[in-house]
Design goal:
589 residues; alpha+beta; five-stranded antiparallel β-sheet; 8 helices; extended
């Protein structure tokens, strides 16, 4: 009996000793955190196991994990083993929560961790994530948008340069764009970046490396406060950890980080009204203006080319050239527009021209009168006007432009312009045409005769069917109201296109078009059209969020247009945007 008791005691001691050697525990990065912070939870064991089961993490959202890591080393002949499963959690609300028990099987035995209590408080000013690597990335990686000027004039060029600053403490392995800014209130052009170049610089007084990712030239098309949307990147970063390999080298962990350049706001000034010429057409910059022809002497019916040219620096692609006026006796054809414009960080530079083909019809000297071009000079902040020189076209040979004819019974002369005939301009009808009937077959009894006789009888059921459908359509009050609103939307959108250049009429027509479209598609009245309700109804009907945002943005543009001036280019962009958004909503709804 005593021997059996001793044996059981020894056996229980051995099991307890073996059990004491196995460790399976929960470790949290902090027991108290803000609702805007992250929590790291590690489930660690000192022996390998199977069938790991995490707790449910009530009150938290899993944003990362499980990440598995294994450490196996020999020190002075003694083996050290560690295995862990890591999770990153975001709290859903404030309160006190418990990280429940995790389970694992080791050598056929099931082990459980001890529950850990965690308290979530109000948001903190400077949140720190439970992932130390992620926090290191946030402190050492910055995407910055540098704007050349924050208070430009309307149609004055500004540049946005996006730079990625990286601290020497970390290294970037790769990156990709998640979201690109749309510049809806600007004319924009990206400058080609042939090769990315790493340079040394400073950020907040500390040494950093940086690379210029993108350069964009913007011309604001509206006045007032305009928003420049952020550039957003997803970046893979290698961050050093506190762990080392068996040779003592520091181990690195790779963290994917989303960074954004942040929204930027600029205040666009309107062009002054004082001294504004009547012929000003929106040109802003520094320009030269000329009118020239490729010849000044020629014969009648020969052609020459006249060019109206504007060259210099400024918004060359965003205004129209003045029209060329020619005297009677010279035939003028529609001009061909040419652009030789390059865009760099200072804006557009180069020249634009309209080439006219002119054909004089009679002999004589014809003056092409002087025309003027006005622009707003940014250096002097004043308007300047350039007048072209008068050009004389000498037509040497050809019909006389005038001839004198005496009236019968009087000595007074009457001047009439001669008609110039070039080639054979008239063809006379043939008097003896000798016309013959095309088909000499008899009509009565033919196939055509029987078709003409039976077709009305066959058409009676179709008339009855379509008459019934038309009656149903007339009785469909809701459908008729929707169709009428949709028709009005199309009508006012066409009216808006006709009013391009007239800001008040254009935006009034476009606003009516948008409202009638909502009446047709959502069956709501104008008095009920709040932005929140429109967004909610479009979402319920299956419209994508981006299209909904663009539709609301169009309504806001119509509202802002009542208080701030807008250029023709901005109106054209808003019209094209409205046509595209309505077409897209038609497909989605």
């Amino acid at each position: 009996m005593k021997l059996r008791l001793v044996f059981l005691t020894i056996l229980m001691t051995m099991f307890q000793f073996a059990d004491a050697q196995i460790k399976f525990e929960t470790k949290v990065s902090k027991n108290k955190l803000g609702v805007n912070e992250r929590l790291r939870v590690d489930f660690e064991m000192n022996q390998d196991g199977d069938n790991f089961r995490p707790p449910s993490f009530n009150g938290f959202t899993v944003v990362g994990g499980p990440n598995q890591s294994i450490s196996n080393s020999w020190i002075n002949g003694k083996r050290s083993y560690s295995k862990s499963f890591s999770y990153f959690l975001e709290p859903r609300s404030r309160g006190k929560f418990t990280i429940g028990q995790a389970t694992i099987e080791i050598d056929g035995q099931t082990y459980k961790t001890t529950p850990v209590a965690v308290e979530v408080t109000a948001a903190v000013d400077k949140p720190k994530d439970g992932n130390d690597s992620d926090l290191a990335v946030s402190d050492n990686l910055h995407l910055v948008a540098e704007i050349s000027k924050t208070n430009p004039y309307l149609n004055e060029a500004i540049t946005v340069v996006y730079k990625l600053y990286v601290s020497p403490r970390i290294s970037v392995s790769n990156w990709q764009e998640l979201d690109s800014p749309k510049y809806s209130d600007f004319w924009s052009q990206a400058i080609d970046m042939k090769q990315l170049k790493i340079e040394n610089g400073e950020y907040n007084g500390e040494p950093y490396r940086y690379v210029v990712l993108r350069k964009t030239v913007l011309y604001p098309q509206k006045t007032g406060k305009l928003n420049i949307e952020p550039l957003t990147l997803s970046i893979s970063v290698d961050v050093p950890t506190n762990r080392r390999d068996i040779f003592g080298g520091r181990l690195f962990s790779t963290v994917k980080k989303t960074v954004a350049a942040g929204n930027k706001t600029i205040n666009v000034k309107s062009l002054p009204q004082v001294g504004k010429p009547d012929n000003f057409n929106g040109a802003v910059g520094s320009f030269d203006f000329t009118v020239k022809t490729n010849k000044s002497e020629l014969d009648a019916t020969e052609s020459l080319e006249a060019k109206v040219i504007v060259s210099g620096n400024g918004n060359l692609k965003l205004f129209d050239l003045p029209s060329l006026n020619v005297p009677n006796g010279i035939e003028q054809y529609e001009p061909e527009h040419n652009e030789t414009v390059r865009t760099n960080l200072t804006g557009m530079a180069g020249s634009i021209s309209d080439s006219y083909t002119l054909v004089p019809q009679t002999k004589g000297k014809f003056p092409i009168p002087s025309i003027s071009f006005s622009y707003f000079d940014l250096e002097t902040e004043s308007y300047k006007t350039i007048n072209s020189e008068e050009i004389i076209i000498d037509v040497k040979n050809g019909p006389d432009g005038n001839m004198s004819i005496s009236n019968n019974g009087s000595g007074n002369g009457t001047t009439k312009q001669a008609v110039t005939q070039i080639g054979s301009q008239f063809r006379f009808l043939k008097l003896n045409a000798d016309l013959q009937p095309k088909n000499k077959e008899k009509f009565f009894g033919s196939t055509t005769y029987w078709l003409a006789l039976t077709t009305p009888l066959l058409a009676i059921p179709l008339f009855l069917f379509f008459g019934k459908k038309q009656e149903e359509r007339k009785n469909d009050v809701t459908g008729n109201r929707i169709r009428k609103a949709d028709k009005l939307a199309r009508k006012y959108l066409s009216e808006a296109k006709r009013n391009l250049g007239n800001q008040k009429d254009f935006y009034e027509s476009m606003e009516r078009a948008l409202h009638n479209y909502l009446k047709a598609k959502l069956n709501i009245q104008t008095s009920d059209m709040s932005k929140d309700r429109i967004s909610r109804l479009l979402k319920e009907r299956g419209a994508e969020q981006t299209i909904t945002i663009e539709f609301i943005g169009l309504l806001e543009s119509c509202e802002f247009a009542r208080y701030t001036p807008s250029s023709t280019s901005a109106m054209e962009q808003d019209y094209e945007k409205a046509s595209r958004v309505i077409s897209t909503l038609d497909r989605q709804l």
